[in-house]
Automatic annotation (TrEMBL):
A GO MF label: zinc ion binding
Domain 3CxxC-type: 21-88
InterPro entries documented for this protein: ZAR1/RTP1-5-like_Znf-3CxxC, ZCCHC24_C, ZCCHC24_Znf-3CxxC
SMART domains, sorted: zf-3CxxC
Organism the protein comes from: Halteria grandinella
Superkingdom in the source lineage: Eukaryota
Key words of the record: Metal-binding, Zinc, Zinc-finger
Protein's name according to its UniProt entry: 3CxxC-type domain-containing protein
Length: 97
């Protein structure tokens, strides 16, 4: 008899387990840290410094930015470092750069 891994038995690699995009906080073993508004459940981002796959240690719901926040809307999403983009074979956000 074959057994199948159900959705509830899949590995949990991130704090958030929903289906929407969230804000993630990343910390690589090489010491580099970053934050991203393109964070997903059980998806990594590769470190720009060492290319290690890093999963977020904290994730929060996306919120509209505070006017005092420094947000660079022109900063491109680095698809070649994004696990979700690689899984989808395309940009993981609805925004196109």
């Amino acid at each position: 008899m074959q057994s199948f891994v159900g959705a509830s038995e899949r590995p949990t690699l991130t704090p958030y387990q929903g289906s929407k995009r969230v804000f993630g906080f990343f910390r690589c073993e090489c010491g580099k840290t970053w934050q991203s508004g393109n964070s997903w459940a059980n998806q990594y981002q590769q470190c720009k410094s060492c290319t290690e796959k890093v999963y977020p240690y904290e994730q929060r719901a996306l919120e509209k930015p505070n006017p005092d926040d420094k947000v660079d809307k022109d900063k491109p999403h680095l698809q070649h470092l994004c696990g979700k983009c690689k899984t989808l074979g395309r940009l993981c956000t609805k925004r196109f750069y």
